[in-house]
């Protein structure tokens, strides 16, 4: 397994709404086209209306690389910055999970 967690902070409420729309469009394409993407979860943060947390889990590094190569992901990466004031990325070293079929 290969994973990451990303905290996005939007510039303002209007930017947060536009970012959510971009995320929704991209997320649908990820669900349909990426069997190697095991989990791609997007969360709003309670009490912090401008923050979003992404939790991404991929079958392996190759599946992540495949995800990053998709045209719709490249569009997301190119368009997201106009809505954001900060991005924090944590690369994760998978240990264990419940509810995820993994070979470890």
From TrEMBL:
Keywords: Monooxygenase, Oxidoreductase. This is Quinol monooxygenase. It comes from Kitasatospora paranensis. The keyword Oxidoreductase applies. Its EC number is 1.-.-.-. The keyword Kinase does not apply. InterPro entries: ABM_dom, Dimeric_a/b-barrel. GO terms for molecular function: monooxygenase activity. Residues 2-94 form the ABM domain. The lineage of its organism: Bacteria, Bacillati, Actinomycetota, Actinomycetes, Kitasatosporales. Coiled coil: none annotated. Pfam families: ABM.
């Amino acid at each position: 397994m290969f994973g990451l967690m990303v905290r996005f902070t939007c510039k303002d409420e209007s930017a947060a709404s536009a970012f959510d729309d971009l995320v929704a469009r991209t997320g649908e394409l990820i669900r349909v086209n990426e069997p190697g993407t095991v989990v791609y979860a997007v969360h709003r943060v309670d009490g912090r209306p401008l923050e979003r947390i992404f939790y991404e889990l991929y079958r392996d590094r190759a599946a992540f690389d495949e995800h990053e190569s998709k045209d719709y992901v490249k569009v997301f990466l190119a368009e997201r910055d106009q809505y954001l004031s900060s991005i924090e990325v944590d690369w994760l070293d998978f240990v264990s999970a419940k509810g995820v079929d993994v070979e470890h």
